[in-house]
Write a structure and sequence with these properties.
The structure is a single chain. The chain is α/β, with parallel strands linked by helices. It has six helices and seven strands; from the N terminus they run H-H-E-H-E-E-H-E-E-E-H-E-H. It has a seven-stranded parallel beta sheet with strand order 3-2-1-6-4-7-5, sandwiched between helices. The protein is elongated and about 65 Å long.
């Protein structure tokens, strides 16, 4: 970036070390250059995940992975930013992690061989499965009241939801467009859908949302 600090994160902890099981001795000694908000500076990865688990939201995200879609990593990163309950990968177990920027370490990622197995797992937990695709009969997301306990299912870039996915979904919704293109990028669609849930259900006035937030260095 042309502007901003020359290095990400913070250096070694100045002065006496803080007390608490959440702190990582190596990070305190060497500095913390990870891509985490200030709240989690110098914390162990296990402590960060445990804290996130106390606050996770009620929505899940699922992505079909039949062609090693490059969007999956970016969707995982966005799911972490909006604190999704879980991310579900359907199809191939291996997926392109580059776009995740290591955020998959802090996010629960599960694999399912088929959409039907995903649907069975979600329905057993009382979670509604909604697909996103600009299909005939899809409801516009702009006027849709999303369930609090919901899984947002996305298909491959290009073909969209598979036929099996369409049959397994409890419903489908679309993002209203006004230009000439037939569709928008899958990761962009996922971000819009997740943020729609956030606007409807998240506690935006609480202590658990931040633009960086207060942290150990403040």
């Amino acid at each position: 970036m042309p502007h901003g600090p020359p290095e990400v994160g913070v250096g070694p902890w100045p002065g006496p070390w803080p007390e608490g099981e959440q702190y990582d001795a190596r990070l305190l000694a060497e500095g913390d250059r990870r891509n985490v908000v200030d709240r989690y500076r110098y914390w162990t990865m296990e402590a960060i995940v445990a804290d996130l688990d106390r606050r996770r939201h009620g929505f899940h995200v699922a992505i079909e992975n039949w062609q090693h879609d490059f969007n999956i990593g970016t969707i995982v990163r966005t799911a972490n930013a909006f604190l999704a309950a879980e991310v579900h990968i359907i199809g191939n177990r291996r997926w392109n992690r580059r776009g995740a920027m290591v955020t998959d370490r802090y996010q629960h990622v599960r694999h399912h061989p088929s959409v039907s197995e995903l649907a069975d797992d979600l329905h057993a937990r009382g979670v509604t499965l909604l697909g996103i695709d600009n299909l005939p009969g899809s409801e516009p997301i702009e006027t849709l009241a999303l369930p609090r306990d919901v899984c947002l299912l996305f298909g491959q870039e290009g073909p969209g939801l598979s036929e099996a996915a369409r049959l397994a979904c409890d419903g489908t919704f679309s993002i209203t467009q006004f230009g000439s293109t037939r569709s928008i990028n899958a990761s962009a669609a996922a971000a819009i859908a997740m943020h729609t849930w956030i606007r409807q259900h998240a506690d935006l006035d609480g202590e658990h949302s931040w633009l960086g937030g207060p942290g150990a260095t403040s």
